Amino acid sequence: MADARDDREPLVDVVPAAAGSEPPGEHGESGLTVVVAFGANLLIAVAKTAAAMITASASMLAEAAHSWADAGNEIFLLIAQRRAGKPPDPTHPLGHGREVYVWSLFAAIGLFAVGAGVSITHGIQELAHPEPASDFGVAYVVLGVSFVLEGISFVQASRQAKRGAARQDKDLVAHILETSDPTVRAVFFEDAAALVGLVIAAAGIGLHQLTGSPVPDAVGSILVGVLLGVVAVVLIDRNRRFLVGQVADPRLQAAALRALLELPEIERVTELRLEYVGARQVYLTGAVDLTGNLAEDDASHVLASLERRIARTPAVVGALLSLSEPEEPSL
Q: Which pLDDT belongs to residue 8?
């Protein structure tokens, strides 16, 4: 009985619910998004550092720290994808998918400590001991080039995010916050913050040049730091949620429930849980009432067969089904 059922197709209808409607090819594009962001931020960091040394601008130094933090974060994100892609082993039967949240958490903490910490600290020091800036033209050129490069990276992240949001009929920001892929979320928010930070830095430097006072420049540095701090806290919180066990969206759980109820072996479902164990990876647990009045041995074979079929579904790393109690209400 079990072997015959195992020859059937996997529960492909559960894939959208399990994976957040993200196709398998999305993983490769996530890697491309991170690589594009890393290349852009590395070039920008070098240019901003040189400009900060030439101009002595507090806002430019804050932007340099910001870009170095972003470049370092992309390295963490690349490590995250590589380690999370390791296959299951005896000590990690569900795979290593949650590593993506661990390394993404490190990246967010780095953004907070390096980007926000350095920017705010330097801005406060500049207010206490102001120093005039010079060579403003160099600063404007570097900020302009940086805006173009950051824009290219942001367009790549936005393109991927918009496709995911459209598949789920969600608002773009809502999708970014809820997606199980932390690399897309990190690059999107970091690039968005970078573009806003460049505008803040340009305003601070421009006011410094117009008024001759370094105060607007220092304030710009502090504002950039506060912006990075807010983004870092959001990223830290989202990674924390997935690390401790984030369940799938109710709409996605409902789609999985419908798919299970369409199976002839299942009469009703009284419990269902889809928990993320990695980017686009879930573990399914549930309690079901099987069709007919099967003997204990036959029921165990049917449950084991269903678990294997579910586990063969892309994005579902494993499943555990038990029999429902007669008094338990159906979902």
A: 52
